[in-house]
Structures are given as C-alpha cells and as structure tokens.
Design a protein that fits this description.
The chain is mainly alpha-helical. The chain is 61% helix and 0% strand. Helix 4 packs across helix 5. It starts with 9 loop residues before the first helix and ends with a helix.
C-alpha cells in the first residue's frame, strides 16, 4: 500500500493525528469537534481514493507494467496515501511487522483501542474495523518489551474488555494479558472476577485461569470447555464462543 514518507517521525504523527485524542475526551464539546474532524478527513480520504481509482482505470490501457508507472496515477495514489494517514482507522494501517513497542504510531493505536472501550457506539459508527483491532492486538501481544506506561494502558484495556459484554476480536485481549502478566494485572482481574457483573465475573476468571495455565491455548474451544466446568447462568455468557470474531 505504500508508507507515508514521515511514517517514523513522532512530530509528523502528532501533526496528522494529534487531534484524535479529542475522541476519548470526557468533554462532550471536545469529543463532538473531534468526531466532526474525523468525518471530514474520512470524506477527503474517500475522494482521494475515488480519484486514484479513476486514474488507475484510465491507465489500464497502457499495459501491465506501464499501468502502474503512469505519472498522474502515481501522484493521485500518493495523495490518497497522504489523505489516509490523517484518518482513523486508515492512519494506523502501516504498523511495523516488528518493533511495534517503539513505533511512533503506538500512542494512536492505543487511543483507537481506548476509544472502543470508552465510547463503543461512536467507535462502531465512525471507525469500526475489526481487522485493524485484531492486527494491533496481535502485534502488541508479540512485542518483546513494552514501556511501563504502555503496559499500564494495555492492562486498562484488558480489564475494560473483561468487564463488558463480548465484542468481536476481544479474545485477543486474553493473549495480551499473558504478554503483560504481572501481580497488579492479576489483582485487578481478581477484583473483576468477584464483581456483581456476570460478564466480568466469568471473563476475568477465565483470563486468570489462562494466566495460571500457560499451556492452555487461547481459543473458542478452550473457552467453551472452561465454561462447561462452571455453573453458568443463562445470561448470554456462552455467546462469547459463538460471536468471537
């Protein structure tokens, strides 16, 4: 797809996506302004893509090799990549295959996941991408080392995930819990497992069990077998197995 020329520049990331922190603001006016900006950059991205596709079709008559070298198409394609880098979730699509812990885009990846946790209706309406969510969580899980402040944010996300009704791709938070396992996370999960919230009770207990049973695979089958050993009330908890993304 091509990377933005300043993909590794922290300042460039801030200039492009710094405004997105308003999406998780507790101030309704600030959040509304950020949503309005998101709608506009998404419109600009769609328009840039439309123009790129139009020129791609026009250049198709040049032949299979010349097709992709046509100057007007290349310029339009670059304008689309630039427009996309200012938006969510599109601006996160160039995550590195390795070294995500040091990626300048990491704060915005965490923000994207936090936005789903805090304002799931807005996230779903304006920037839902289950593939982006899954990809980010898988890379965060595989990272060898996270900064302590990042681990704290990741722990917050894990706890938020177990405390809510299951959402598509949430199962990757169980893998992430293993990657950042520590006493504080286990204590927070233990607290959730004792709450009156049935989703928190069962999901937190399951993740705690996974942390103490490292050989158990994180899968729908494991979740189903674990639930079968519990006295599960009829409240939809079992749907976590069937609705897994």
């Amino acid at each position: 797809m091509g990377a933005h020329p300043n993909a590794g520049d922290t300042r460039a990331w801030r200039e492009r996506l710094g405004w997105t922190f308003g999406l998780v603001s507790e101030d309704p006016l600030e959040r509304a302004a950020a949503l309005a900006q998101l709608v506009e950059v998404q419109r600009l991205t769609r328009e840039a893509l439309r123009k790129s596709n139009e020129l791609w079709r026009l250049a198709s008559s040049l032949g299979p090799e010349e097709h992709y070298k046509e100057p007007a198409f290349l310029q339009a394609r670059q304008r689309y990549i630039e427009a996309r880098s200012h938006s969510l979730p599109d601006g996160l699509w160039e995550w590195p295959w390795g070294g995500i812990a040091a990626w300048p885009g990491l704060p915005y990846a965490l923000l994207y996941l936090e936005w789903e946790a805090k304002y799931p209706e807005d996230w779903t309406r304006y920037a839902k991408s289950w593939g982006t969510k899954k990809g980010l969580l898988r890379h965060l899980d595989k990272a060898n080392h996270h900064h302590p402040s990042t681990e704290t944010k990741l722990a917050d996300l894990v706890v938020s995930a177990v405390e809510r009704p299951y959402r598509c791709e949430d199962r990757w938070y169980a893998r992430l819990a293993r990657a950042i396992d520590n006493d504080d996370l286990r204590a927070r999960l233990g607290h959730a497992a004792q709450s009156d919230n049935p989703w928190a009770r069962y999901q937190a207990s399951f993740v705690l069990w996974l942390l103490t049973t490292p050989d158990a695979p994180v899968s729908r089958h494991t979740w189903s077998m674990w639930l079968a050993t519990r006295d599960t009330p009829k409240l939809g908890v079992r749907s976590a197995e069937s609705t897994s993304g």
